[in-house]
Amino acid sequence: MEEGVTQFKDLIFSSFDIAEKDIRTFSPLGLAFIGDAVHTLVIRTLELEKGNRQVRKLHNDTSVYVCAAAQSRAAAVILPELTEEEAAIYRRGRNAAPASHTRSAGDKEYAEATGFEAVCGYLFLTGRTDRLLSLIREAVEAEEDH
Q1: Which of 4, 6, 1 is nearest to 123 (CA)?
Q2: What's the N-to-C CA distance of the chain in angstroms?
Q3: 8 within some domain
Q4: Is there a domain that residue 2 lies in?
Q5: pLDDT tens string 110-119
Q6: Whole-angstrom distance, CA of residue 116 vs CA of residue 105
Q7: How far apart are CA 110 and CA 94, in angstroms?
Q8: CATH of the domain at 35
Q9: Residue 28 pLDDT > 70, yes or no?
Q10: Is 10 a catalytic residue?
Q11: Using an 8 Å Cβ cutoff, are 79 and 87 in contact?
């Protein structure tokens, strides 16, 4: 599994002639930006696999997992499982100062969601997709119990 997703990232980079960069040069909000997309892609894939539905229903079912409140809860679930390196990325994302945030989430909740997204982005960009999917799985299972 990890090989396939890493190949996907590598294919994107090579297809658009993007040079590999030192991951430490990415801002925490940049990591969160890509992490949000990766997390959303995983959740949308899971929702689509549950069966064909109207796109509006797919969107609504996906939103349960990808909103700031759910991502904040996901952060609380995975935080004890993070390595030191991952926890440092989480803190950088959480402590980053975004220009704006959604009206449906408070500052603390949005910050925690951003930390979660930063970890997702970091794991994707470093090719640690098995780890990424394992953490998302834990978060999904916890959200289903919520």
Answers
A1: 6
A2: 28
A3: no
A4: no
A5: 899 999 999 9
A6: 15
A7: 8
A8: 1.10.1520.10
A9: yes
A10: no
A11: yes
Tokens of 96: 């980053």
Q: What's the structural domain count of the chain? A: 1
pLDDT given for residue 3 in this prediction = 57
pTM for the complete prediction? 0.89
Share of residues in the chain with pLDDT > 70 (%): 90
Whole-Å CA distances, 70 to 15, 24, 77: 34, 27, 10
In a domain, 13, yes or no: no
Catalytic residue among 22, 36, 107, 145: 36
Within the chain, residue ranges assigned H as helices are 2-15, 28-49, 55-66, 68-78, 84-95, 107-125, 129-145
The tokens of 53 are what?
A: 């539905």
pLDDT at site 37 = 96
* Domain boundaries, position 135: 26-145
Decide if 6 is inside a domain: no
Residue 4 has pLDDT above 60, yes or no: no
Query: What is the band of 47 on the pLDDT scale with cuts at 50, 70, 90?
Result: very high
